[in-house]
Specification:
By secondary structure, the protein is an alpha+beta fold. The protein is built from 15 helices and eleven strands.
Amino acid sequence: MRIAARAVERKLNGDFSDCKGPVLPCSCGGRMRYEGRRSKTFTTVLGDMTLSRAYYHCEICKESFVPRDQALSIGGASLSPGVMRMTGLAAAMVSFEEASSLLADLAGVTVNAKQVERTAEALGREMAEDERSHVEPERDVASTLYLGVDGTGIPVRKSELTGRKGKQPDGTAKTREVKLCTVWSAESRDKEGHPIRDQGSVTYSAAIESAASHDEAPFAKRVLREATRRGFDRATRQVVLGDGARWIWNLANTYFPGAIEIVDRFHAKERLSEAAKAIYGTGSELGTQWAKARHEELDEGRLDELIRMLNIHTSSCDEARKCRDYVRENRHRMRYPEFHAQGLCTSTGVVEAGCKLAIGTRLKRAGMHWSVEGADAIIALRCTILSGRLEDFWERRATQAINRTAIAAVR
C-alpha cells in the first residue's frame, strides 16, 4: 500500500519516470504492455512543444494508454489545455473562421478553422455532460427567484429536417427549435423602487430538445436541473415567466405547482401590437394609437375592456380573434397591478434577451446551417460561459484528469 501511495503521489506531481513497467491492467480484462516512449508535438500558448511519453498498448482490444497525456488533459488532442480554453472561448463568441483569426492576431497561436470547430464542439460536448452530471444546489438563495423558458429556431442542415413539419408554404421546416431555461433574481430596485434584475444573477441552460412535460422529457429534466442548481424550490417566492405558450404552463404546473405564473408583459404587448397591424395595416397611425390604448389597459389591469375592444374586430380579423383568446386564456397571469403591488417583475426582458444572447447571436448568423449535435455543443459552451460556470468546469476537468492518472498508477 505504501508503494502504491508513493506511486500516486509521484503521478500527482507529474513524475512518470516509473511508467516503464511491463504491463498495466486493461478495462477489457487483458493487459496493456509497455511499448516504449513516443513523442508528441502539441500547440501551447508559448509555441509548439514536443514531449516524450511512456506508451502502453493492449493486443486484445487494441486500446492504448499514455499516462502523461491523461495527466495533462491532452489525450487525443494537439492543443494544450490553455490553447484549448482560448479556442473554446473564441469559438463561443464568433464563427470558427473568425475565431481562428482572433487566435492568430491576439495570441500568435495558429489553429485553423476546422481545428477550432472540432475543439470547440468537443469541449461543448464535455460541458453538456458536465451540466448533466453536476447539479449541486447553491448555498445562498435569493428570497424571490424567477424562472423563464422560451424557444427560438436556428437554421440546420437539410438532413436534420427530414419528415419535420414547419412554417414554410409547403409545410416543411427550415429550422429546429432550441429550448432555453433561464433563472435569475431581482432583489435590486431602481430609483422608483421597482425591482430590477440583479447583476450577474442570470444563468442559462439550453439545447434542441422536446418541450414535453413528462418525467422523461429531456427539456423537462434540463429545467429541473437548472432549478435545482439555483435552489428555486427553496426560494420564498417562485415565479415562472413565459410568453403564454401552453407548453410553458404545462411544464410549470407539472414541476412548480406552487409558483406564481406571469405572462411576460413584453410578449403580451407585442401580441397586441401585432393585432393592431393586422387590423389597421403596418405603419398606420390609427393602428399605433389603438395599440397604445390597449397597452395602457393591459398595464392598468382593465382586461375586460381590453377583451371588448378586441371583440369588435374578431369577425373581420383572425389575428384579433387569436389575440382575444390569448388574453382570455392567460388573464390570471396578466394581473400586472397586483404583481407590481407584490414587488414582482413582470417584464425584465431576461427571457427574450436570453434567446438572443445565448442562442441567436452565435447560431443564427447569415449562411449558418448546423447539425443538431454541433449546435448543441456550441450552445452548451455558450451557456457555461454566460452563466459564470467556466472556472468550475475547468477545475472539475483537471481533477478528473488527475484522478484517472492516479487510478492508473495504483493499478
